[in-house]
Amino acid sequence: MEKALKECVSYFKNNRGYDKIFQQMREKWISYGKISGNIIVNNPTSEEREAVKKFLGIVSDTKKIKFKMADFEKALKESKFNSIELINLLEEYFQEKIIYQKEEKKLIEEERIRFFENIRVKLKIESIYNKEIEKLLDTIILEKSYLFKYGEDNSEIEKMIFLSLKAVHYLSNLDEKVKIAILGAKIAKSPHYFDRGSAAGNFLIYLLYLLFDIEVTKGAENILEVYYRANIEVDSVSNYVACFGIRLYTKSGEHGAYREFIKNSEEYLVTLSNLSKIVKADSDNKRVFIVENQMVFSYLCECFKDKSISILCTSGQLKTAALILIDMLCKAGCKIYYSGDFDPEGIEIAEKLIQRDKNIVPWCFSKENYKISISENIISDERLKKLDKIENTYFKELIEEIKIEKKAGYQELLLDKMVKDIEEICI
Questions:
Q1: How many structural domains are present in the chain?
Q2: Of 52, 75, 98, which marks where a domain is finished?
Q3: In a domain, 370, yes or no
Q4: Contact 294/244 with Cβ under 8 angstroms?
Q5: Cut 0.70: pTM above it
Q6: CA distance 201 to 194
Q7: Which end is more exposed in the chain, N or C (fewer Cβ atoms within 10 Å of the end residue's Cβ)?
Q8: Which domain holds residue 345?
Q9: pLDDT at 221 over 70
Q10: Residue-averaged pLDDT of the chain
Q11: Considering the chain, what percentage of its residues have pLDDT values greater than 70?
């Protein structure tokens, strides 16, 4: 039987006139899972016409060869190769297992399920499978099941998913900060395994976004935030926020150094490193004013020396230190007033921040204030398109005005207005 099959394959392969015919029969079998449909060869060569005439007894014209796939099987059964099944001939001809399309999809799904279940079993064996890890794994299956590649070696992908989930479990039970290199050495026996930019490093960041329910972005500050919240040590010195009148507390009580700054009506910087020991932040009157511009911050601090006023300066983009501190203030029940520049980027920051907590409200973002603060700096059409993504209706009138004027507005021109607002709210 084996000898006859090889002889049959040799017969058809040695004649190029059968190439297109066999290719089409393979495709028909994949589509239908049986002998079905017509075989059509358009504009056949003389070699192809001679081939069908010799084997099937069909005389064709120069425009088209057409016959049923069943006709080929019938001719095969009437030849000296009558013991050979057509599917066996096709598989030997193409040197592959030919699988019906629906059957292949079923096999892929079954293998994919086995792949992820194998990871689940390993997690359970190492006693790191809890509700948190289960939820993350189920999300991976739904959102990133493409990580599994059918018919390929998935061992490295399996290892990455398993070790990344193991790292999340380890971090969730950690009481102190750990360097990313130490985490890699501890979990994967490789200091660089979870480096940012590596496949495993990026996947761990994705899991941490899911864990803390933070929007998945490529922004460096968001990555630093998830690192910080996961107890992964980050660059904690260059990441800071400027403060005035904000009281900070450790487990043992109010932090003495910052208390002295407040006593002397002085501004001070709080870094991520400082915040690692802070458990609470608060304001004497439960009102905190946030500005984007450093000059504006300095001016307001000077205006309210010896007053119980609390002010923060973000210096542009919201750094992780600022976000952590703002979250602490919201947790303490403080109302946060945020003011930024009148440009697409400033409004984007404002919207993201007020979405963070119900205690955070926009401040000075009115159409009237924009008209006071408007400058000669033109906003490009490309930047203006960013305004179309703003969904909060609070900014609707302001956005319409900015699109008309196409100019940026700056906080420096609203200093008197800001001072008056703070006095009315707090004094």
A1: 3
A2: 98
A3: yes
A4: no
A5: no
A6: 4
A7: N
A8: 240-426
A9: no
A10: 90
A11: 96
